[in-house]
């Protein structure tokens, strides 16, 4: 009897529809490590920026190389696939070559047919994170926060100058030492540190010696820098691996695993969390469904379908799903139609 009571309570659809959402991660962290420079980029938009810049720029498109942490960014007036393609060509391909992968969210400017055609033409694999799961593109989110914090300090007196400060913000970021790689993005890219204004004012040792170097000494110095670049990059890769493993260990301690099978019934959280359903206001449910799991995509992502077989357009992370528990009557096959109620 007690077991039946528990099963009855668990199968209450109203209770399931209004139950809490698990905010702890559902699957272990899968850190992205690219062992070579400029082969993998994380990309995202900052914005919409209010107030917009004096040039009417309302967004900043940002891309970060996974290995060197080198950041490219450009202020733009709107979000579109053509702007994304132009940025990739000018700021990535023409400077660093064709990358292997670009990781983005599922914004319309990243998943259009125009982007797909561009991807096929250049052999670039676009990797999209699940909706409402920003940690899947954590590198882009991290870079956005850093750039915003730098620009904030520069535009306090005139926020509409943000587009003019972007270049300085990028310079500051590229020449700042990163804990994750143990050096600066500039040094990891070019093999030596950038010459900073302070070195001009105080005449650093390397600048003092440079005018006295003959051609042979200068060539020897450059060759030495090139020889040291590979060990520096190997050391940076080791830093990256150690850092990623430490983050993964800490993250995975919080994981409360849940998995789903194909054709299993599930509830899907109404997103964004806290959104109100039309007509319900504050009494809006937390979950909607049930839906069927159509396909397991890996790394905690699933593709769902409606009960009538209609596939959902976007996949979703398992954190935003929970198992549908049938009512006690459905589980036992008892018919509770009106003409049967008198016999139960």
UniProtKB/TrEMBL annotation:
Residue runs in coiled coils: none
InterPro entries reported in the protein's UniProt record: Integrase_cat-core (IPR001584), Retrovirus_Pol_polyprotein (IPR050951), RNaseH-like_sf (IPR012337), RNaseH_sf (IPR036397)
One of the record's GO molecular function terms: nucleic acid binding
Signal sequence region: none
Protein name: Uncharacterized protein K02A2.6-like
Domain Integrase catalytic: 33-193
UniProt organism field: Prunus avium (Cherry)
SUPFAM superfamilies documented for this protein: Ribonuclease H-like
One GO-annotated biological process of the protein: DNA integration
């Amino acid at each position: 009897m007690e077991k039946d009571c528990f099963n009855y309570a668990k199968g209450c659809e109203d209770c399931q529809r209004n139950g809490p959402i698990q905010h702890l991660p559902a699957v272990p962290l899968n850190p992205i490590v690219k062992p070579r420079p400029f082969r993998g980029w994380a990309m995202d938009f900052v914005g919409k920026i209010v107030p917009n810049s004096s040039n009417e720029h309302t967004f900043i498109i940002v891309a970060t190389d996974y290995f060197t942490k080198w950041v490219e960014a450009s202020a733009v007036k709107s979000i579109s696939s053509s702007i994304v393609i132009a940025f990739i060509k000018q700021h990535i391909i023409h400077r660093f070559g064709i990358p292997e992968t670009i990781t983005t969210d599922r914004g319309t400017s990243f998943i259009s047919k125009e982007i797909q055609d561009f991807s096929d033409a250049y052999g670039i694999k676009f990797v999209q994170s699940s909706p409402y799961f920003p940690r899947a593109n954590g590198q882009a989110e991290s870079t956005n926060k850093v750039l915003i914090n730098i620009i904030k300090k520069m535009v306090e007196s005139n926020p509409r100058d943000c587009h003019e400060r972007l270049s300085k913000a990028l310079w500051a970021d590229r020449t700042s030492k990163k804990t994750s790689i143990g050096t600066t993005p500039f040094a990891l890219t070019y093999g030596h540190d950038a010459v900073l204004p302070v070195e001009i004012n105080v005449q650093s040792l390397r600048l003092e010696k440079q005018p006295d170097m003959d051609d042979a000494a200068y060539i020897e110095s450059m060759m030495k820098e090139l020889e040291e670049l590979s060990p520096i990059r190997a050391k940076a890769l080791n830093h990256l691996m150690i850092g990623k493993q430490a983050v993964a260990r800490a993250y995975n301690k919080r994981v409360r695993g849940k998995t789903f099978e194909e054709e299993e019934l599930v509830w899907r959280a109404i997103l964004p969390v806290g959104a109100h359903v039309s007509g319900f206001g504050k009494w809006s449910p937390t979950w909607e469904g049930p839906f069927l799991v159509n396909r397991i995509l890996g790394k905690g992502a699933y593709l769902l379908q409606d009960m009538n077989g209609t596939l959902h357009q976007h996949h979703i992370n398992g954190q935003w799903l929970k198992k549908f528990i049938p009512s006690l009557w459905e589980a036992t096959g008892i018919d509770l139609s009106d003409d049967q109620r008198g016999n139960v």
